[in-house]
Design goal:
about 110 residues; mainly beta; four-stranded antiparallel β-sheet; three-stranded antiparallel β-sheet
Length: about 110
């Protein structure tokens, strides 16, 4: 959450990975602001807040990362969301997860 008086331009980064994804399955990573995922040019948008990785010719670990510069206001909430089409529950691998952001200007 952006603290009071700390609005401005931020750099936001997130990544995630899932092990043992079957051939042709996808992992999508999204940056959400205030619960909304940007879909301006769905499924790929012009702000870079979405990324997808597809597994190759066999079961494998796959990961995706996404980053963006975005203007945020005090009280805005930023999070990273994952989606996959493996067909059953999958646990994200904790060692592959990362999320951070920092203000670059006011």
């Amino acid at each position: 959450t952006v603290p009071s008086g700390k609005g401005g331009k931020y750099f936001i980064y997130g990544r995630a990975g899932i092990g043992n994804m079957d051939e042709g399955k996808q992992l999508n990573v999204h940056i959400a602001i205030n619960g909304n995922v940007d879909t301006d040019s769905s499924p790929f948008n012009n702000r870079g807040m979405y990324n997808r990785h597809e597994s190759g010719g066999h079961a494998e670990q796959i990961g995706a990362q996404v980053s963006v510069f975005v203007n945020l206001s005090a009280g805005d909430v930023v999070d990273v969301r994952l989606w996959h089409n493996e067909g059953n529950s999958q646990n994200a691998e904790s060692w592959r997860g990362q999320f951070f952001g920092y203000r670059v200007s006011t």
